[in-house]
Amino acid sequence: MRLHRTGWRSADQIRAELEVLEFLDHRLPPAIRVPRPRRTQTGDLVVSDGTRLYSLLGWIPGTPARPDTGLDVAAVELLGRGLGAIHTALDGWDGAGSAPVRWDADSLFTAGSPGLMGIDFAGLDDVLDPADRQLFTRIADQSRAIFDVTDDWGLLHGDYILGNCHWWLAAGSRRLGVLDFDDFGFGPRAYDLGPVLGNLFDFTESWPDNAPAVVRGYRSAHELPDSVVATLPIMMAARHASMCLWILGHTGQAGAPDRDHIRLRMQLATACLDIDPGVFFGTSG
């Protein structure tokens, strides 16, 4: 049972997310699973008690894993294939127009970010020092330029991170369960790779092997030109920078923004921009 956060999604938007999960449940390969929504006796996917919205999802077994807790290169390659398979499957869904948000430079980096939850965008100036604030703008501008020339737009998971991926064994084979489609929307597919690559980058010893594994896995299920792979460090930085507005909004609602977390995100974004895609992804920068 899910109790949905007030003000984040309308009932129709939540229904669209759940309809996507129903669609994917029948179209993903056996090694990759998503939660299967449960409908009410009247066939609805969302119910209301007059104040809050509720929905029900089937169980996905397994637990998350990281490179320091047993996530090996073969699993990382399956991570890439899982996201690629989701993107390819969703190319066949005819409800793209009902996606709750368009993930573009405006919704990721400006006052139009849904993650702000009504908090003033100008609050970012009070948290970041001038150098980080300039960096935030530079990442936003670079991302916008990439998005403007990107051909592969479509439905995104929106939060494809290690914590939203569960692992288990079935009949001796590894299985991947992908959870939490709350942030699903329409946007540039390359951006959807930024979150999980950012997670893996935190584990420096395994990063040289894991970075190309994600790309290999993704390419086994969905097209990914070298020209797009070369932008992945910026997509990783874009994820961290855009999360600054999510943190500002969600922690600001609770009383005070989490300044340390926002500053950490900009430190991580800086590190991502130093990644040479030719070295780690096998492409020219």
Task: Describe the overall structure.
This protein is α+β, with helices and mostly antiparallel strands. The protein has one domain (59-280): Alpha-Beta Complex (Aminoglycoside 3'-phosphotransferase, Chain: A, domain 2), CATH 3.90.1200.10. Helices cover 47% and strands 12% of the residues. It has 11 helices and 9 strands. It has helices at residues 11-25, 73-90, 105-109, 123-127, 130-149, 189-201, 207-219, 226-229, 232-253, 259-273, 277-280, and strands at residues 2-3, 32-33, 37-38, 47-48, 53-57, 153-156, 165-170, 173-178, 185-188. Strands 1, 3, 4 and 5 form a 4-stranded antiparallel β-sheet that branches. The chain has a 3-stranded mixed β-sheet with strand order 2-8-7, with helices on one face. A hairpin with a 2-residue loop joins strand 7 (165-170) and strand 8 (173-178). It is globular and about 55 Å long. The protein starts with a strand and ends in a 5-residue tail after the last helix. The mean pLDDT is 94.
